[in-house]
Amino acid sequence: MLEPGNNSELPPIPGKRYFTIGEVSELCGVKPHVLRYWEQEFPQLKPVKRRGNRRYYQRQDVLVIRQIRSLLYEQGFTIGGARNRLQGEEARDDLTQAQQIVRQVRTELEEILRILRR
After folding, report:
1. Which residue has the higher pLDDT, 30 or 7?
2. CA dist 18 to 11, 52, 56, 63, 112, Å?
3. How far is CA 44 from the centre of its chain?
4. Which of 24, 57, 71, 116 could form a disulfide with 61 if both were Cys (CB 3.0 to 4.6 A apart)?
């Protein structure tokens, strides 16, 4: 297993669509039972479950797991603190997207107004 401070030494994520829990365990340097526990603690982690309740993680899930690993093992966050940090980042991302949409709609409306004034 990798030491907590070696997040930069994690292997690159292959260009696959789905990963098994064993593959994610190796890619993130975290044991499978820890991944299953994190699924209960972090609402951002929702692997696809198929036949026999087998988990299949997507690339975005692997990135979130690496981020959680970094928050917990390298930056010293508690589970609750890491959860709050990730939720705060999601809220900022949502706000940024909303602001971009408002700007785009406003630009389009101004263009329509210019056309109507001609």
Report:
1. 30
2. 16, 16, 6, 13, 44
3. 7
4. 57
3-state secondary structure of 49: strand
Residue 14: DSSP 8-state? P
Using CA atoms, how far apart are residues 54 and 1, in angstroms rounded to an integer? 23
Residue with tokens 């036949």: 51
pTM attached to this predicted model: 0.68
Averaged pLDDT, 10-26: 91
Give me 55's structure tokens. Answer: 């988990």
- What pLDDT digit, counting tens, does each position of 51-104 carry? 888 999 999 999 999 999 999 999 999 999 998 888 877 656 656 667 777 778
The phi, psi pair for 49, rounded to 5°, reads -110, 130
Nearest residue to 68 (alpha-carbon basis) of 90, 104, 42:
42
Task: Please provide the size of the chain in residues.
Answer: 118
